[in-house]
Model the fold of this input.
Amino acid sequence: MRKPILTIFYQFNPWNSSIGGIQTLIKIFIKYAPREFEVRLVGTGDDKFQPSQKWQTAEIAGREISFLPLFSLKNDNVRSLIPTTLKYTAALLGRSLSSDFMHFHRLEPSLATWNWQGEKTLFIHNDIHTQMQAVGEKKAILWRRFPAAYFTLESLLLRQFSQILSCNTDTIQFYQQRYPDWQNRVAYIKNSFDGEIFYPLSYLQRQAYRRELAIKLGLDEETRFILFAGRLHPQKDPLLLVRAFAVLNQPQTHLLIAGDGELAAEIRGEIARLRLSDRVTMLGAIGMEELAKLHRICNVFVLCSAYEGLPLVVLEALASGTPVVTTICGETPKLLAADNGVVCKQRTPECVADALRQVILHPENYPTASCVATAQPYSAHTVIEDVYSKMLSRWKLAGHSVG
Done:
């Protein structure tokens, strides 16, 4: 009698301020894992987790897990000359980490796992077709320089996966058409938010905490806040947001940028060039609890990405009662309704500024209740419980007994 083992593979250290929806989703999968499962995480380490390359017991969100740091990585928010994915894949080569269930959030590490026994699931977090199109910023993802090579590798590696799950319906359709023999393996999965962390305040509480933040930042008490949270990376296009904020030119309005990444210095330069230094605050990488507080008190959350799946940060904003402004990317435009957000028809500063203006000047058109109701079906309690329940059913169907 033993517990089924789930091993999660991703190149991050869950105890660092690592930015990204994948990292958040993994933590949610760990936090809400049923006690019937033994959970293992293969990630990266730092001075706290030494020596590397040895299993150790650790705790995430009150859940005990086994943790294997493959190598030390000081800051996974900024890309290095050698891609972290390449280092991570190389560190897996020659190992055998077979498990009952294995979850992968990048394709490349499965180069090392071909002969590993167990049910393998690949989570796809972006609109792959849009992501791989050879237009725009080539530095956003290295594979965009070699799309043919990527799809050749993909067609080889996907054979080992029992499930290919995506939060993006366009990606599902793309894979089902591209690999018709495997279309039964491709399925939709809802991204999810942690309702114990992201929830709304009453109107009076929201106003009071917003004034507190304004005073803390030395701003007028009636200041309205626009929030961006994510990696400062070409995919997220935070420079478009800064330029849109300059066009908005709305008094008593302040932009908060929570995140870190390779564009940080360029963004600071653009803020200075546009003379916005007293109207924009760059917060750097912040923890989830602090981000949740900002979601609860800001007037609007904004997403300017070039491509996405369904960003967790959008669900977190809506669950906190905050309306969303987004470019046309990923599932977010399909999720939003007229009373909880605005979709920008064009990726221009003027269009984004107009959308922000709509929400800021007419908050009564975007009630908290509508935002929360849209997010509710994506609650981790519901989504993650369903995923684990199906895993356990398959485990039992294979003839195993749960200890």
User: Anything to note?
Assistant: The first helix runs from residue 21 to 31. The chain has two domains: 5-192+379-397, 203-378.
